[in-house]
Design a protein that fits this description.
The structure is a homodimer. By secondary structure, the first copy, chain A, is α+β, with helices and mostly antiparallel strands. Chain A has helices at about 5-15, 20-30, 35-50, 80-85, 85-105, 115-130, 140-150, 170-180; strands at about 60-65, 70-80, 160, 165-170, 185-195. The longest helix of chain A is centred in the first third of the chain and has 19 residues, at about 35-50. The radius of gyration of chain A is 21 Å and the shape is globular. Chain A starts with a helix and ends in a 5-residue tail after the last strand. The interface between A and B is medium-sized, with 33 and 35 residues.
Chain lengths: ~200, ~200
C-alpha cells in the first residue's frame, strides 16, 4: 500500500532510524503507524545502544532550584556541541534535573553503587531474613529480589520517570539517544535539600 | 582495622560529631557501624545541647549556573526564616555560589578535610623536602606552612573572596553574621564542571 511521506518523516523523527528503514517499516505494517513505531523504536534503540561505545564528551551542566529548598546539578553528555545546543537536548536535561529534585536518587546507575554499600545492604536483608526464621539455604534467593528493589529505587536510571511513570528515566534517556542520533549519557548529579543529611 | 570513608561520613552526618571523632569511634568498635553510631549519638547530642538555641537550622539552598558549563549548589543556614528571606542573606548566598563556580574549592572549611587526605598531602611535602636534602629534624617545620597553604587554597572559607580579594570568604560571611544579627553557616556545597573529573 502507499505510505505517506508525512508518516515516514514522523516515524523517522520519533525513532531516530533512517528514511529507508522508516518507509520499509510502514510498508511492512501496511501503514499502521503505531506498529511501525514500535518496531522502529526497538531498532532505533539497538542502534543507540551500539552508539554507547562512541564517546560522549560534549553536553551541558543543568541546574534546577526548587523554591530555594532543593538544588540539583546534573551533567548530561552527548557527542557534539550541535546536539548540546539542541532544544530537545536542553529540555531533556531540565526534565532529568527536575526528576532528581523530586525523586532523590543516590546513584546514576547500579554501576555506581560502592561494593561496601552493596555488602552492607545485603547483610542487613540477610540478617532480617535469618531473624524471620527463613531457612539458611533459602536466604540468598529470598533476599536477592529485595536487594535489587532497594537499589533500583535509589538509581536514577532505574527510577520510574516522574512525568511518565510507565517508563524509567533510563528508557526516557535512551529514547532521546534515538531521537537525537547521538549517544547521550547522564554522567553525574548532585542534589542538596535544605536541612537534610547529605 | 580499615574504616571506610563512607562509614565515617555517614556516622558524622547521623550523629553530628566531627570527622576525627567519627573515625575514632569506628576504630574503637572495629568498624561496627551501629555500635559506633550509638556511642556517637550520645556524644553528638551532648554537643548539640551545648550549642543551645543558637543553632542555624533555617536558610536557603542556592544554585548558580555558568553558561551551562559549571553548576553550583550551596546550602547556607541561618537561625530564622525571617533572615532566610532577607535580601541581604539571599544576595550573600548568590555571591558565595558564584565564588564557588569561579574558585572551585574542595571543602567548606579545614574541618572537612579527611584525615587520610591530610596525611597523604603531608607525606608528599615531607618526601619532597627530604629529596631536596633538607635536614630531617627541620622537615616538619619547613612543610607545615606549605601544607597549610595547600589546604587554605582548597577551603572555601579560607579562599580570598573573588569580588574583594582583601578578605576571605569566611570574613565575608562573618560580616553578614554581624549585619544580620544571626549565626550564618555555609553548610555544604557541590560544584560540577562540564567534562572535569569529579
Amino acid at each position: 500500500m502507499a505510505v505517506s511521506i508525512e508518516d515516514i518523516k514522523r516515524l523517522r523523527e520519533l525513532s531516530g532510524v533512517g528514511m529507508t528503514d522508516a518507509k520499509k517499516a510502514l510498508e511492512e505494517t501496511n501503514g499502521d503507524f503505531d506498529a511501525a513505531l514500535k518496531a522502529m523504536r526497538t531498532k532505533g534503540l539497538t542502534k543507540a545502544e551500539k552508539r554507547g561505545e562512541r564517546e560522549a564528551r560534549q553536553g551541558i551542566v543543568g541546574t534546577y532550584n526548587h523554591d530555594s529548598r532543593i538544588g540539583v546539578i546534573v551533567e548530561v553528555n552527548c557527542e557534539t556541541d550541535f546536539v548540546a545546543r539542541n532544544e530537545i537536548f536542553t529540555d531533556l536535561v531540565k526534565d532529568v534535573a527536575m526528576h532528581i529534585a523530586a525523586s532523590s536518587p543516590q546513584y546514576v546507575s547500579s554501576d555506581d553503587i560502592p561494593a561496601e554499600e552493596r555488602e552492607r545492604v545485603a547483610a542487613e536483608f540477610n540478617e532480617k531474613a535469618a531473624n524471620d526464621g527463613k531457612p539458611a539455604e533459602m536466604i540468598e534467593k529470598i533476599t536477592a529480589g529485595q536487594i535489587q528493589k532497594y537499589f533500583a529505587e535509589r538509581c536514577l536510571l532505574d527510577q520510574p520517570y516522574i512525568k511518565n511513570p510507565d517508563v524509567t528515566v533510563g528508557d526516557y534517556v535512551k529514547d532521546h539517544n534515538a531521537r537525537l542520533g547521538e549517544n547521550i549519557v547522564v554522567r553525574r548529579f548532585s542534589r542538596i535539600a535544605l536541612g537534610e543529611a547529605a
